[in-house]
Amino acid sequence: MATAPAPGTRTVDREEIRSKLLSLVASYLEQPVTDIRSDGKLVDYGLDSIFALTLCGDVEDEYGIEVKSTLAWDHPTVDAITEYVYEALTAEA
Description:
globular, Non-ribosomal Peptide Synthetase Peptidyl Carrier Protein, Chain A
């Protein structure tokens, strides 16, 4: 029998992180999420510094972690950012 997580803890799921990031990117680009590949380079989708900083802020707000302003440049795909966020969240656990 599965037990519920303790209050204040968060279950971390890579696919949920990836899905949220894909939704954010699609929203910024005003494109359907189905048009965004998780392994596609964000710069190829038109990533600019404003988009990159907005993504950093949204990641910090959503996951409660601090990220460098170079997140999107250091981790240039949704898959790479997903792994970064996942690792940061599981390291805190």
